[in-house]
Design goal:
The structure holds two protein chains of two kinds. Chain A is an alpha/beta fold. Chain A has helices spanning 49-56, 79-89, 105-115, 121-131, 147-159, 177-194, 205-208, and strands at residues 7-18, 21-33, 38-42, 64-69, 72-73, 90-93, 165-169, 197-202, 213-218, 221-222. By secondary structure, chain B is of the alpha+beta class. Chain B has 26 helices and 22 strands. In chain B, the strands form three sheets. A six-stranded mixed barrel of chain B has the order 2-3-9-5-7-6. A six-stranded mixed barrel of chain B has the order 13-15-20-17-19-18. Chain B has a two-stranded antiparallel sheet with strand order 4-8. In chain B, helix 16 runs antiparallel to helix 22. Classes of the chains: A alpha/beta, B alpha+beta.
Amino acid sequence: MNSFPILDLRRLTKSYPTGAGSLTVLRDVSFTLAQGATCAILGPSGSGKTTLLGLAAGLDRPTSGSVLLNGIALAEISEDGRARVRNEHVGFVFQNFQLIPTLTALENVTVPMELRGDRSARTLARELLAKVGLSDRADHYPTQLSGGEQQRIALARAFINRPKILFADEPTGNLDSETSQKVIDIMLDLNRTAGTALVLVTHDPEVAGLTERTIRLRSGEMVE
Amino acid sequence: MNLGFVTRMAWRDSRSSRRRLLLFSISISLGVAALVAIGLFRASLAQAIDDQARSLLGADLVVESSRPFTAAQEQMLRSLGQTQAREVRFRTMALFPKGGGTRLVHVRALGGNFPFYGQMETAPASAAQSFRNGGAAVPDESLLLQFQAHAGDPIKIGEETFTVAGALTKMPGEASPAASFAPRVYIPLQNLAQTNLLKPGSLAHYLNFVKFAPGTHVDLEVKKLAPQIEEAGLEYDTVAKRKKDLGEALDNLYRFLNLVGFIALLLGAVGVASAIQAHLQQKVRTAAVLRCLGSAGRTTVAVYLLQAIALGVVGAMAGAALGLTIHQLLPGTLQKYLPFTLPTAIAWPPVFRGMGLGLAVCILFALPPLLRFRRVSPLLTLRAAAEETSATGGRDFAIWFVYLAIGIGLTLFAMAQAEHWSDGLWIAGGLGVAVLILMGVAKLLTFLVRKLLPPSWSFVIRQGLANLHRPNNRTLLLTLSLGLGTFLLLTIYLTRDVLLSQFKSIDAHSQPNIFLFDIQPPQTNAVAALVRQMGLPVIQQAPIVTMHLAEVKGRKSADLLKDPNRRAPEWELEREYRSTYRDTVSETEKITAGKWIGHVAYQPGDTAPISVDQDIAKDLGLTIGSELVFDVQGVPIKCRVASLREVDWKRFQTNFFVVFPTGVLEKAPTFNVLVSRVPTPAVSAQLQNAVVEKFPNVSALDLTSVIQTVDSILTKVALVIRVMSLFIVGTGLIVLGSTIWSGRYQRLKESVLLRTLGASRRQIWEILCAEYLFLGLLASVTGILLAVLASWALAVFAFKLGYTPSLWPIAAAAVIVSALTVGVGLLTSYGVGSTPPLAILRDELD
């Protein structure tokens, strides 16, 4: 196993210019996450959780500070470079699932592999669909699936490229408690079996309690 | 970039929107169809001209003169070649004794075995030869149809009665004269004298056809013979000259039509661009997810570029298929008006050129929205409110580069279509101005709707009209395409209307409406007496002397014609001037400079003081005192410009470019013209019959037949332009349909919300109706404004006529365009009012 952390955030600050001057939504946030570790980012609405996740995953650039993902400084590479890093090392699960509506469940799962030009993805995708219990839904379109099913498809998609780290943004926010539990179980199981580090954004302390570490945010600052 | 992924993704992603994408693709189809059909038509014509070049003239060389050939000329003509034929052409009245009908005809007295190339086609076929034996005539088919005459019937020309041998259907080198004042009648040359029609001074044209020995290099031979023909004072025509003239005329027509086709294609391309933009708007989230999953910006763009290319290919193919179909139908409709047979074989280069142009324009116009797509932010997956494009990089130079390429491409195309590059720039500029005016008017009207919409109006109407200025509206694009189509169609219609109404108004104001001409000097008084005897007025009588312009201010006309820097148009130097002499200024003219001189005591060798029309004087660079030499049927007469006149050419009277004082031309070969007014067509026929009976050499021209001829010419020209404009309006309607279809998703959401809030289906439909009705009105009013402006400018500046457009075509244009817009709008909105709200809420409103 590599000795450097999978995620290393140093003094991250994010501000937006507004009509009334600059608005800082995240201030001086620093933490590291070891390979294979799990952590939750907990905080009320508007505390900067999603902003932090976006910066950590390379979906946005910080106003100041740096992000090292698997040892790569994200600020120093282009947007296309960051896209490559995401494709090779990162998996995502979103609150609103973000499946591509025009693709079937199976096709949605294979997209990250196909982007790399790997056409063997279909076998692996079917295995992952079996793992999340949706083998029989492979040819359904997102609109033909329930919320829980869509989120499990999204999970299969997130794991198909065997990511080193999985970012989950309120993955259970749109699900009932029973389905939520199922989704959380799958994520933790994949973390254990594949050694994928997990960063979970949530406002539910109970869900946060299932991870090894909790980072609390309030008004854009870490209060841990 | 992973091409395999791009292709698969483009294919899969299109699944839910293929039908809609196909509809978009048709936007460019009509433009491509127009270009392909026009290109094929031109290729067929060029092919026909090449294949049938010799039959364009029917001979290798034609030598012509407006006077009988002199002995010296005859000698020169004999030296030109072994095989020759002769023709004398002149206009006169023909009488069908059986039914009693008379009409002005163009007699062609033919001697020899002309045409040497191609066939004179007649029904029955034997007539083409048999009439040459003497005593028989071959009139145009249309003339026989008009008087219900058949082979075997008599036809009287001058003092001779011929037997109709058959009907003329085609003569090499000549189109059907359906639109000319006088149908043709072929008679044998040996019977010409018996008609007793040609007197000294009569208007006639003498032609000598020559066929060289087989194997002669025609161009070299003509080059060798040209100096002696010119020296003998004769003009000549060759296949090469005829081919060049025809080619130039066709090229001008082709360029104009191609430009119209191109406008249709451009509008279609703008439609495609807006459709792509609407399509991409729905794909922003997909792009953001792809970016999240590691797709590079260019990969995302490539996916949708591939879809756009596929769209262009399908649209171009559909257009080419339609163009080919039109091409197959064209020869059948146009054959009659062409001087040769059109081949129906397909030339593929114009097909591929049209498709290539369609595809290129489609891709070029789709690029700006596509390029913006490479900056879609992956952050959109986390936040719905995130900015759609990431802020990196500031200005996007790639998009500006594409805009520049579009501008340069359009200008280059216009320049390639025009005869001179500067004309191309004018066309591109003019098009730009028309588009800007349309955009300006559309913007202004939309602005007024937004600002002035009375709050007291019903919710339904306010909601419908508000759709026109809401974000993502397509008001501008639709106003542009429908407005441009309306503008072109209506301009053509109004201009034709103005021209025709001018003639009709003349007829309505108890002004002259019949001309009797070719009256020989001794007949003048007798013809006038006959007219008065029938109770008709003699409004004007004038002697006419034909002459050619030999010298202008010391320079020979022939030299001026060769001067590339001359200002005067060719026809002014070459034409046969029909001048008169009198001692007073007529009521249709006004002296604008110099002094009118009514009479001179002229001696041969003197300089005659003449009065010249001010417009032609300007072209020829003449001022008071300028000297000219006229060749009056072989006699040179020196002249000096004594006065300039403004002539009201619109009046149906005898007007002249050049008027001599009395005392100069009295001894020259002259014929007279008499102008009168007949109250009814029946009286006109009576007068014509009486005149032909007593004075067979006198011809009559009735204003009614002029109106009919002008109408039929304008109708044909208008038809071509109207068909082309239909391509533009058709494209406008398709763009309208596809644009509404592309905004359907947004409409569905809106109407579902409205219905959730309690709106009835009827209200939803009323909102849509109000929107499309206003859109149609906006487009048609803009088009109408431009058309009225353009036709006014044409009438006042080009035709110098008063402008009083009739109102009903304007009203009809507004009603038709609006009705079509509402119809197409409602058709493509089908389902918007009736989709159950739950379906949308479940699918889209997550």
